[in-house]
Amino acid sequence: MKLLELKDSIKNLIIELEENGTAIITMNRPKANALNTEMLLEIEKVFKCMAEDDTVKGVIVTAPGEKFFVAGADINGFLELDGMGGRAASKLAQDAFQAIDDLEKPVIAAVNGYALGGGNEIAMACDIRIASTKAVFGQPEVNLGVMPCFGGTQRLPRLVGYGIAKELIFTARQVKADEAYRIGLVNKVVEPEELLPAAKEMMATILTKAPLAIAMSKVAINKGKDLDMVDGLELERNCNGLLFSTQDKNEGVSAFIEKREAKFTGK
User: Fold this and answer.
1) 3 state SS for 129-183
2) What pLDDT digit, counting tens, does each position of 67-81 carry?
3) Catalytic site residue 251?
4) Predicted TM-score (pTM) of this structure
């Protein structure tokens, strides 16, 4: 199925596809984009669709306005959940965000406002984060007697280090965009009106590169972080070996030698 064929069946996400293959996924659920079961299932469905849709070259995830990216999980149903229910809720969200992580295409989060709890966790599942100066990040779960469980305990320390991750999770302290940049949680901070243009500009640059090389680099980085150095280097060799068998490698090298712009086809 093509991405645009999903538009009419998806209620909580606005789906757009630009001419250069950039899919813009705008989270658009009333009440601050709080993540409920329906929205999480839609996120997983959309990202798995984009994995199979070759018209999609890259993805930008954002939200409307300047106040909320995603304020967190929808906690209205938490009192009804027992231990097994809480575990199932975690898996539902983890599966949705893993679909983002697993997509072998570049994904940029354009974070416009509060990204708390599940909001920070969905941003961390993306490859790159660009933040508005109005963005605020945090993992406030311990205030509710629970813990980050949509991937936060795993992705946050990998981005900012274990000490800072433990501080932010244990204290539930929120950080503004400038601090998020300083600790490595976001890649870039821009004014609110520049957020989506900056994300589009970065994506446009990425899409001029060899798509298979981007995909294999993402695989090597994402899978390699769970390996020791010896196995990680073997993974890197294997991914590079695949790239050396592609037409894009021949085109890129030839273009460099001939001093011309490469025309990559993803083959």
Assistant:
1) EEEECCCEEECCHHHHCCCCCCCHHHHHHHHHCHHHHHHHHHHCCCEEHHHHHHC
2) 999 988 887 778 787
3) no
4) 0.94
